[in-house]
Amino acid sequence: MKVTRGNMLAAGMSNNKVKYSRLAADEDGYIDLQFKRSPPKVPYKAIALAIFLFLTGSLLIIFGALLLAGIIKVEHPDRTIPVIIIGILVFLPGFYHLRIAYYAAKGYRGYSYDDIPDFGD
Length: 121
Hints:
Transmembrane segments: 46-69, 81-102
Subcellular location: Cytoplasmic vesicle, Autophagosome; Cytoplasmic vesicle, Secretory vesicle, Synaptic vesicle; Early endosome; Golgi apparatus, trans-Golgi network
Membrane topology: Multi-pass membrane protein
Order of helices and strands: HHH
Function: Involved in trafficking and recycling of synaptic vesicles.
Number of strands: 0
Largest sheet: none
Keywords: Cytoplasmic vesicle, Endosome, Golgi apparatus, Membrane, Synapse, Transmembrane, Transmembrane helix
């Protein structure tokens, strides 16, 4: 068998044309593990608040719609619009944060539990 450069490298023989450089003697103290991100902490309180806001807003919207349609009789029908407006204002942040929590739980790209405010907990 004829010995060629490819056979020498495959057999583990050294190649004299390869130049090696020494590693620096002084370490800068960094390790690879410190640059890896730990899994984010799930903000359970913020998600519970989002569920509460979502459900409360949904109930206010439904109740306001029933009042506006006349299914529930009221003495002052002009007070039904603020119920719907408050329901929408409560529903929107709850829905928004629940959507982020759902996508983060499913692992969609671009969504993380870090995007949900945790109120300093």
